[in-house]
Specification:
By secondary structure, the chain is mainly alpha-helical. It has one domain. Helix 1 runs antiparallel to helix 2, helix 1 packs across helix 7 and helix 1 packs across helix 9.
Length: about 290
């Protein structure tokens, strides 16, 4: 890995790891629907404006349906899961569930015939399942409605992200990363926009809240996805997806040091089990997966 790719990898890890802290503040100010909707629209709008200003030619000739499906899953579904879960179960646990996305992605890829599960992949899936059981079954807090809703939302978001990634890999392979990011974020934001009638913004946001929202949408979404897709092109999808492991570590440190969150010993073991399982699924250890 070249030095510029390593720096981009580390930058992406920090941006996404710290984003969990910002998500909590944005959800408090705008509500979970507002956080998802405004974040997605800001991300898509900022990247679209930058593309126009730089003279980049955008091609959306594949039609609106693929972007709408990716927007409904990878953007709306995943962001709803994150925004609902983080205030309820904390940034650390939410980030660990995010690290499990490759497990769900492997299962969906197997069902669609995109990928073939190897023996190490099966072992990784079993380790990941054990990790999720430990994570949910042995918390440091009481198992109440908020905890259950947060865990379900996290799993829902991870499955949506995995589905959208496989769909994009299958149907948007020839479409540019800017088009995929712009189209999916704008569609995702438009899909959740009507929900503001049911879950309106709870308070009058402060100026700093708008600053958090702009930071979350422009830097931690739009910019981060540009870095992500460039890394996919430069070092490959498998190595790039492994960034979720470092993201989890950053988010757990943020939750522990800045927010006073704690994971039980069983949950820490579950975290390690999920990371080890994902490493096997991604072919980062043992025999490489084609």
């Amino acid at each position: 890995m070249k030095i510029q790719h390593l720096l981009a990898y580390l930058a992406l890890s920090l941006i996404w790891g710290l984003s969990f802290l910002v998500v909590v503040n944005v959800v408090q100010a705008f509500g979970w629907v507002g956080a998802v909707t405004f974040r997605a629209l800001v991300a898509g709008g900022v990247l679209f404006a930058i593309s126009l200003a730089s003279g980049r030619k955008l091609n959306f000739s594949v039609g609106w349906q693929p972007f709408a499906i990716v927007g409904a899953t990878t953007v709306a579904g995943q962001l709803v899961g994150l925004s609902v879960a983080a205030p309820r179960i904390g940034t650390a646990m939410t980030a660990v569930f995010v690290a499990a996305i490759p497990l769900f992605s492997m299962l969906i890829g197997q069902m669609w015939g995109i990928e073939k599960i190897s023996r190490s992949g099966v072992a990784g899936l079993l380790l990941g399942l054990i990790g999720i059981v430990l994570l949910v079954g042995f918390p440091t807090v009481a198992i109440n409605n908020d905890f259950i809703v947060g865990c379900v939302a996290s799993v829902f978001g991870a499955i949506c992200a995995a589905f959208g990634s496989n769909y994009a890999s299958r149907y948007l392979r020839q479409v540019g990363s800017h088009e995929v990011t712009i189209g999916s974020f704008l569609w995702g934001g438009l899909m959740t926009l009507p929900l503001l009638w049911l879950v309106p913004v709870p308070t009058t946001p402060r100026l700093i809240d708008f600053g958090y929202l702009l930071l979350l949408g422009s830097t931690m979404s739009a910019l981060a996805y540009v870095i992500y897709f460039r890394l996919v092109s430069a070092i490959g999808a498998t190595k790039t997806i492994s960034v979720e492991f470092v993201v989890t570590v950053v988010a757990v440190l943020v939750g522990t040091l800045l927010l006073g969150e704690r994971l039980s010993l069983a949950q820490m073991l579950g975290t390690l089990s999920i990371i080890a399982g994902c490493a096997l699924v991604l072919g980062l250890v043992g025999q490489s997966k084609r």
